[in-house]
Q: What sequence folds into this?
């Protein structure tokens, strides 16, 4: 069984964020954001995040743009009123078009945390991605940190 975690950094202190990752036992974090140098949270900017994960959690960091939504898609949702349902549908279709289930493997994703900015997985593409992989691979357990 492949274990995949998801986490968002907004509305979390650095202490809470890194403790949840540590407590999970994850060994790798895959950043699925389009922009990983955002000012939304200082500790979640690419270089700082990579350092803190390595030093505090012994977790490797990887940014994978293949798992991010496109800029037009994200802009349509965030700035132009696209519904969550339409955004989720388009993102899932994008993952299918990119054949993410073939690009990634269950073994490589074992004990991996998918990171995005949204505080809750409910309206975040990291949840859609995890569910997409679970559907494609079977035998995947998802835990939202």
A:
């Amino acid at each position: 069984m492949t274990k995949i975690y998801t986490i968002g950094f907004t509305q979390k202190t650095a202490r809470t964020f890194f403790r949840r990752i540590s407590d999970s036992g994850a060994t790798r974090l895959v950043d699925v954001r389009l922009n990983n140098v955002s000012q939304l949270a200082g500790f979640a900017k690419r270089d700082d995040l990579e350092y803190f994960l390595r030093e505090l959690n012994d977790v490797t960091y990887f940014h994978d743009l293949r798992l991010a939504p496109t800029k037009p898609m994200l802009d349509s949702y965030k700035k132009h009123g696209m519904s969550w349902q339409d955004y989720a549908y388009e993102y899932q279709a994008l993952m299918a078009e990119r054949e993410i289930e073939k690009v990634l493997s269950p073994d490589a994703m074992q004990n991996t945390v998918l990171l995005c900015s949204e505080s809750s997985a409910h309206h975040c593409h990291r949840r859609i991605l995890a569910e997409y992989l679970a559907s494609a691979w079977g035998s995947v357990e998802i835990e939202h940190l």
